[in-house]
Amino acid sequence: MKITMAHGSGGKETSGLISEIFAHYFDNPVLARMEDSGIVDGAERIALTTDSFVVTPLFFPGGDIGRLSICGTVNDLLMSGAVPRYLTCGFILEEGADTEVLKRVAQSMAQTANEAGVSIVAGDTKVIEGNGGIYINTAGVGFVRSGIEIGAGNCRGGDAVLVSGELGDHHAAILSARMQIENTIRSDCAPLNDMVEALIKNGIEIHAMRDITRGGLATIAGEFARASGCCIELEEKRLPVNEQVKAFCGILGLDPLYMGNEGKMAVVVAEKDEQRALQCLKESRYGENAAAVGHVTHRENGMVLMKTAIGGTRVVPELMGEGLPRIC
Amino acid sequence: MTDRKDFLKAYSGEPLRFMEVCGTHTAEISRNGITELLPPEISLISGPGCPVCVTVTDYIDRLVWLARQPETTVVSFGDLLRVPGSRESLADARADGGSVKMAYSPLDILKMAKSEPKRTYVFAAVGFETTAPVYAVLLENAIAQGIENIRLLTSLKTMPPVIDWVCGNGSRIDGFLAPGHVSVITGSHVFQKLAEKHGLPFVIAGFDGEQLLAAVYTLVKCRGRAGAVNLYRSAVTEEGNKRAQAAVEHFFEPCGAAWRGIGIIPSSGLRLREAYARFDAGSMGLDSDREHNPLCRCAQILTGAQTPVSCPLFGTECTPQHPQGACMVSAEGSCYQYAVHHRKR
């Protein structure tokens, strides 16, 4: 069945769409009440975030827009040290969208929400003119653990910088799909509950934590360096990058350091905890390729430096414009 | 590699100036922090190796004009969009209602042209020996598929004549890091000829840090001697890619070309042959060049007469966010590379 403007009218078609797809897949007691708001339990401090997803293609190796829409918001909550609990989702559907496709998306959302331990407790659907596109907004609430203070401005000299796995996978998978380049690169799209849980449970002193998305590790390191008034020194040799992604980037003149993931994080921990933190990451789900990639220093405050593979040093600039393939 | 690093670090002889003439080399030298490993006596200078940087304002102006013609769309690589013309860039023209599209490959234009046969699609065909074969493939495809609403506005240039020009015009260069991608197509023999003519060493190298370091090491070792050394044997042969050469030869012929900051160098460009002139969007005679800002030193920087940091606009009025000249626009431009990596030399 195709989505028509009637599905956005608020009438019979709308309620049919909601009950057959969204309520069906996202089923939980709060949503089942179908009230104007979902009423949920609270906590002393809550983390609140929102994100919109407009990716094409809707399905790609390693994930789809549905999984992405859950992971993006869940990971943002996790990075603040919160336990993700509730999500809302808004669908903007273009006329002509296929309900079978929508079902697959909703199913994927439900599975991912289940994996991430969150319930989808409220939602909205709008239909607009167009050509079958599907866009999703999710907002999320998480309960902040007591005694946790994580912030980009908390990095200190000596701290260790770790990443939870290989850089650029999601970005390379999406670009490959769009450019119809055949390879086996898969998006790393995943909720990071397990590894964050492991770090906290083991008492690792986390100073800063961000999921690596658009702009890549270079962008996050820059944000940490500026917010903390310190210098992040990365080591090129230690950066984990999948061989295929490396080759793909080489051909297109892209740099994995600036490419987005959807299931990786960068974490800055106290110097004393470097090895333990690395072990926690490596032993947790989606963290097997974690690596310690650098340190916080005061060499050039506010800047990111890279020790290059051949022993030179360079400044890692902020991302400017869109990463474009070279022409020569 | 450590030996080479130690050798270079310890070099204290006469000052040496080596020029790279490939935008990717310029970018990779910065990215690998190569200059950090060299003593002050050894300078690496970026020559006219970035196709976007050497494009004259007349050419940009013509693209801007084309973008405003009815039923006409200009299609371009991304980094050309922001290059200032005498008044506007393509990006300005687009914001002002001109029809401009960005493409990743010239071949993208085939699909566009097919889907709208009444609209003329003009590709901004800039590039060196490396990109020219892709335009040849584009035309082969257009002809085979009977697509007639494609045009090229060509600003195609060839490397050997401009290197020859730099050598002959008092730039005092002690050796060249020959352009890597270009060598794949042309073969190493063209650089052997130049080396012999000017009594200088030419080293052909790939793009990773070790290759670049090896190239500088070889240039220092071979200083004062004429000859081309090929360190990039995995990709570069003596004769080059004959098939690509033949495809280019079929559609294009040599012509004089205008280079930003240099002027017209005879036989340094490629234009469509008479038989394919129907695909040309008016590329001839686009030779004048006007600096967008009179203080801009792009011209001197491209020929090695000045470095980016000696330009009065560098880092103040001219930044990657607000470029005044082409060398700051392109990600492979020397000013851009100096700026983003905070290079001092």
UniProtKB/TrEMBL annotation, chain A:
Listed InterPro entries: HypE, PurM-like_C_dom, PurM-like_C_sf, PurM-like_N, PurM-like_N_sf
Pfam family, one: AIRS_C
One GO biological process term: protein maturation
CDD domains linked to this entry: HypE
Residue stretches making up the PurM-like C-terminal domain: 158-302
SUPFAM superfamilies for the chain: PurM C-terminal domain-like, PurM N-terminal domain-like
Domain PurM-like N-terminal, first and last residues per copy: 35-144
NCBIfam families: hypE (TIGR02124)
Family: Belongs to the HypE family.
Protein name in the entry: Hydrogenase expression/formation protein HypE
From TrEMBL, chain B:
Family of the protein in this entry: Belongs to the HypD family.
Keyword annotations of the record: Iron, Metal-binding
A Pfam cross-reference name: HypD
Top-rank taxon: Bacteria
Matching InterPro entries: Hyd_form_HypD (IPR002780), HypD_1 (IPR042243), HypD_2_sf (IPR042244)
The protein, known as: Hydrogenase formation protein HypD
GO biological processes: protein maturation
Natural source organism: Christensenella massiliensis
One Gene Ontology term of the molecular function aspect: 4 iron, 4 sulfur cluster binding
